[in-house]
Amino acid sequence: MSKRDELIAKYADDLKNKCGMKADMDLLTKVTIGCGPSIYNADAATVSGSDPKELATVKNNFIKKKLGVKSDNDADKALGKVMDKYGQSNRNKYRAVVYYMLTKELGKEKVYK
């Protein structure tokens, strides 16, 4: 099993146990690949749900640029829902899991097809 496959399995486990979601493994794999080498860097692999700068980066670079969401309100609402669902007290919010959940929340799965 490759390192990436191990990480994808870990992300699927997080979705199941921390977020109560069953992962669409095909989509999760595509989202993980889309994160690029950041998944192998301990700092870049996670998202801080309490850092406004980090959340602004996710909003601008992923939600708006990658997913094509134009509305700030829609982006903010989706990001808030995902952070709440992942759990504010959960320190390790994996970037690939957050991106996967945002993709599902916003109904943008077709971006990865």
What does this structure look like?
Helix 1 crosses helix 2 (25-35) and helix 2 (25-35) crosses helix 5. 61% of the residues lie in helices and 4% in strands. It is mainly alpha-helical. The chain is built from 5 helices and 2 strands.
What spatial form do the alpha-carbon principal axes imply? globular
Distance between the termini: 24 Å
Assess the beta-strand content as a share of residues.
under 5%
Order of secondary-structure elements: HHEHHEH
Question: Averaging pLDDT over every residue, what do you get?
Answer: 94
CATH architecture: Orthogonal Bundle
The poorly predicted ranges are none
* Number of continuous helical runs: 5
How is the largest sheet built, in terms of strand order?
1-2
CATH topology: Recoverin, domain 1
Q: In the residues, how many domains can be counted?
A: 1
CATH C-level: Mainly Alpha
Q: Report the major sheet.
A: 2 strands, antiparallel
- Into which percent range does the helicity of residues fall? 55-70%
**Rg computed from alpha carbons, rounded to a whole number of angstroms:** 13 Å
Structural class by SSE content:
mainly alpha
Number of DSSP E strands: 2
CATH superfamily: Jann4075-like
